[in-house]
Design goal:
Blueprint lengths: L7 E5 L6 E7 L2 H6 L11 E15 L8 E6 L5 E7 L7 E14 L1
Parallel strand pairs: 2-3
Antiparallel strand pairs: 1-2, 3-6, 4-5, 4-6
Length: 107
């Protein structure tokens, strides 16, 4: 899977050590694809999903091959919910709190 047409940012994540390199999913198509079909993710890398509004969000793992830590953030980048999703998990991961960003990193 190539993310050559994605912006990439380097940032820290509150409560975690190190700097993370994250592909930016800032369109519907990029958010829909996410990290599905990825078979390996290097340490301290992942994806940040950027939305234009604040609302509860849900993610599925049905097309994902690796465990992912999914971190839901409000518009001020405060963690409002997080959960580890397992490969091919059928149950949706739901954040009932309003969030603006979601980060996926190795679980």
């Amino acid at each position: 899977m190539s993310f050559s047409n994605y912006k990439k940012i380097k940032t820290n994540i509150r409560g975690r050590s190190g700097i993370y390199s994250l592909w930016v999913a800032d369109t519907f198509k990029k958010r829909h694809l996410g990290l599905s079909k990825i078979k390996k993710l290097s340490k301290n890398s992942g994806m940040i999903f950027v939305y234009e509004n604040d609302e509860p969000r849900s993610f599925t793992m049905k097309n994902t091959f690796i465990p992912l830590q999914i971190i839901f953030l409000d518009r001020d980048f405060n963690v409002v919910y997080q959960e580890i999703g397992m490969p091919k998990q059928s149950r949706a991961i739901i954040c009932k709190e309003k969030c603006r960003y979601v980060v996926e990193i190795s679980g």
